[in-house]
Amino acid sequence: MLRLESLTKRYRTGDLALSEISLAIPAGQVVGLIGPSGAGKSTLIRCVNRLVEPTSGRIWLDDLELTRLGRRGLRHARRRMGMIFQEYALVERLTVMENLLSGRLGYVSFWSSLIRRFPPADIENAFRLLDRVGLMEHADKRADALSGGQRQRVGIARALAQEPEILLVDEPTASLDPKTSRQIMRLLREVCAERGLAAIVNIHDVLLAREFMMRIVGLRAGAIVYDGGPDGLTPAVLTEIYGEEDWAASSDLSDTGPSPRPGVPDTDELVGAL
């Protein structure tokens, strides 16, 4: 179980990104984070694995308090948390298989990682994961030759290669067309169910959240304003989360504006998440 207790993040500028967030997410539950741009969704996800350092509060993964860990302890704890990025964070010049195996970097020695030498069991598992996400025939293809949907599938397989207990997913469909978005969300739900994984999914499309999320947490100005089932997203609740809009008459309940596209994580950030 993941537990957040009074999680707060204030930046040096004084901006308050998260305010006293408390959540408990049991194993197997897939939670969607929704809210307008700047509500704190990405910050919350990145505070969990401490790519962003919280200002105060506590984060627990089962009995392990993540917020008290030093660098070495955090490196080991991040094995238990698979991160899936909006911009895929693949190494373009490497093959699909090489990118997937980077999910095992936290389990091999520095020298083995440097020359990309992995145990046979890791390689066998990587082929199983490629088959599961429908990319077996693309194993030797360079990442820069893939479509957006294929790249996101590699990102999912890479996260699963860590054998995590929870997936942290930051806007997985922001760059995808509607059909591919549904396929990716369906795949995430299926792999979480198969492996008993919890997941926190920052998602800007409310229609997708309603269809594929088991639980919805709505953020506004860094605070939780809704926590419940998808069926509870009434026009009144959506107004509380996003602001005034004729939600009852609208067939499109996605965010009121496009979400900013953060830059591709740098190498240190990517390796830190593994």
UniProtKB/TrEMBL annotation:
It holds the Pfam family ABC_tran. It comes from the Bacteria. InterPro entries: AAA+_ATPase (IPR003593), ABC_transporter-like_ATP-bd (IPR003439), ABC_transporter-like_CS (IPR017871), ABC_transpr_PhnC (IPR012693), MetN_ABC_transporter-like (IPR050086), P-loop_NTPase (IPR027417). Residues 2-246 form the ABC transporter domain. Keywords: ATP-binding, Cell membrane, Membrane, Nucleotide-binding, Translocase, Transport. Residues 248-274 are annotated as: Disordered. This is Phosphonate transport system ATP-binding protein. It comes from Thiocapsa roseopersicina.
